[in-house]
Design brief:
This protein is of the alpha+beta class. It has 2 domains: 1-99; 105-221, Immunoglobulin-like, CATH 2.60.40. The chain is 44% helix and 33% strand. It has 3 helices and 9 strands; from the N terminus they run ααββββαβββββ. The strands form 2 sheets. Strands 3, 4, 5, 7 and 8 form a 5-stranded antiparallel beta sheet that branches. It has a 4-stranded mixed beta sheet with strand order 6-2-1-9, with helices on one face. The longest helix is centred in the first third of the chain and has 71 residues, at 29-99. The radius of gyration is 45 Å and the shape is rod-shaped. The protein starts with a helix and ends with a strand.
């Protein structure tokens, strides 16, 4: 028992010496506990702020996605509206060309001429729009003659419409209208032939309405 008491006494003395050393060094157990508690409280506060910031980030991402979708919708609508405006402007220009052309001259005219590529390599779709400008008191009738000029084997070459039509295609190209008429004709170019110009002759059979002839550079579009 005496030995055990001495051991206990040594342990108590050692602890007292340890505490004395910490106190001498300026260490305060109560202050340390208070600081630890304050730090733990600060950590909890920071964790709460992190959660709030995470929620704000998620909210901002959601708003960004919503705004992005809304912007896409606005952009799509804007493109659609711009296309409609262009379409209406084209329609206005087209009808103005019938009612009141810029040059103020009545009679037959080619309002639109366009070439687009067909399904095959040498196949093209020719679109022609004829109008009768200013005077519409009667129909104008006649037919269209067309030829394609270009180069073949280093020499100038011209093909009539009848030479370019697919087999079993009606070669006649009549017209009869009061205001306007549009046509789509399919043509197939011969191998080795490079087109350069298209010559269009609109031949009127209506009295006092003159025939016209126009030439267009060969240029294809997407449709």
């Amino acid at each position: 028992m005496v030995r055990a008491f001495l051991v206990l006494l040594v342990l108590i003395a050692g602890y007292l010496v340890f505490e004395y050393g910490r106190i001498t060094a300026g260490y305060d157990t109560v202050d340390a506990a208070n600081q630890r508690e304050a730090l733990e409280d600060h950590i909890d506060t920071l964790n709460d702020e992190i959660e709030v910031l995470k929620q704000e980030v998620a909210l901002q991402v959601t708003h960004r996605d919503i705004e992005r979708e809304a912007y896409k919708d606005v952009e799509t609508n804007l493109i659609t509206l711009q296309a409609k405006i262009v379409e209406q402007q084209d329609a206005i220009a087209f009808y103005r060309g019938i009612v009141s052309p810029a040059d103020g001259k009545p009679g037959l005219r080619v309002q639109d001429f366009k070439l687009t590529r067909g399904a095959e390599e040498r196949e093209f779709i020719l679109r022609l729009v004829l109008v009768q400008a200013m005077k519409h008191d009667r129909k104008v009738s006649g037919d269209v003659a067309l030829s394609v000029e270009g180069n073949e084997d280093g020499e100038a070459k011209s093909y009539a419409l009848s030479d370019l039509l697919p087999p079993d295609t009606d070669q006649a190209w009549p017209f009869s209208f009061r205001y306007f008429q549009d046509f789509d004709r399919q043509i197939v170019l011969p191998d080795g032939f490079t087109p350069e110009r298209v010559r269009v002759e609109v031949r009127s059979r209506t009295r006092s309405i003159s025939s016209i002839e126009e030439s267009f550079a060969w240029a294809t579009s997407q449709g």
